[in-house]
Design goal:
Largest sheet: none
Mean pLDDT: 80
Oligomer: single chain
GO cellular component, one term: plasma membrane
Shape: globular
CATH superfamily: Rhodopsin 7-helix transmembrane proteins
Subcellular location: Cell membrane
Strand content: under 5%
CATH architecture: Up-down Bundle
Helix content: over 70%
Keywords: Cell membrane, G-protein coupled receptor, Membrane, Olfaction, Receptor, Sensory transduction, Transducer, Transmembrane, Transmembrane helix
Pfam family, one: 7tm_4
Distance between the termini: 43 Å
Structural class: mainly alpha
Organism: Pan paniscus (Pygmy chimpanzee)
Length: 286
């Protein structure tokens, strides 16, 4: 017991940003609650693939264990599925803010936001469980060479040595539900938003309303259209070079750009950052 206590006394404590981790009052809104969920999701998204990719780039050994491949497949697919639904919820949030401004605090109350976010994560991981299982149970007859930089559904199914038409049909149905349905809801939501914005008399107010949606539309465009090109198609028509390029965009490039898209185009976030840095500067210099 004394040795354990002595060991703990010798450890260092890293405070990090724990003293600055509270929310800025002006960012305490449903929109930024969902943006924080998206930021955390994107951080995990890139972490699930990039470390292994960097290890494989280091030398001639380019292997991943079976368990590691299954884990990577499940986590990456779960996070991608979650992002599909989360982007649709963020579109609904913008619809409520612009089209129903007086009812917005009631529609997007704190409890409902938490329930929506929790439902998004649960749905994403449940969908991944189904798709990952359908993928890994397909016999590969000893084929081990995966022409990709991480374990992904189309690339793994390409190794199957049996008729996978049933798998393809099931995966295409799930892919369509998870990609096309949320995208259709997003586009429909923005039709109503556009109609509401056009009824605003002030040009300045119209531009402000448009600007709050532009970042989200850019993220949706970058993520959905590259993911659809991969998952709403038969794996038998999968092209390795095209597949790797598309996966690079929606798996690494887009999650990396998302924080910059939401911060560099957002006056509230930039103002909160300036206040935080200014406050820290004055505290340190006093």
């Amino acid at each position: 017991m004394w040795i354990n206590n002595q060991s703990s006394l010798d450890d260092f404590i890293l405070l990090g940003f724990s003293d600055l981790s509270h929310l800025d009052p002006q960012l305490d809104s449903p929109m930024y609650f969902f943006v924080s969920n998206l930021s955390f999701l994107d951080l995990c998204y890139t972490t699930s693939t990039v470390p292994q990719m960097l290890v494989n780039l280091r030398g001639p050994e380019k292997t991943i264990s079976y368990g590691g491949c299954v884990a990577q497949l499940y986590i990456f697919l779960a996070l991608g599925s979650t992002e599909c639904i989360l982007l649709a919820i963020m579109a609904f949030d913008r619809y409520a803010a612009i089209c129903k401004p007086l009812h917005y605090p009631v529609i997007m109350n704190h409890r409902r936001c938490i329930h929506m976010a929790a439902g998004t994560w649960i749905s994403g991981f449940a969908n991944s469980l189904v798709q990952s299982t359908l993928t890994v149970v397909a016999p590969r007859c000893g084929q081990r060479v995966l022409d990709h930089f991480f374990c992904e559904v189309p690339a793994l199914l390409k190794l199957a040595c049996v008729d996978i038409r049933v798998n393809e049909m099931e995966l295409n149905v799930l892919g369509a539900l998870l990609l096309l349905v949320p995208l259709t809801l997003i586009l429909g939501t923005y039709v109503f938003i556009a109609q509401a914005v056009m009824r605003i008399c002030s040009a300045e107010s119209r531009w402000k309303a448009f600007n709050t949606c532009a970042s989200h539309l850019l993220v949706v465009s970058l993520f959905y259209f590259t993911a659809i090109s991969m998952y709403v198609q038969p794996p038998s028509s999968y092209s390795h070079d095209r597949g790797k390029t598309m996966a690079l965009f929606y798996g690494i490039v887009t999650p990396t750009l998302n924080p910059f898209v939401y911060t560099l185009r957002n006056k509230d976030v930039k103002a909160a950052l300036r206040r935080s840095l200014t406050k820290e500067f004055w505290i340190k210099t006093r």
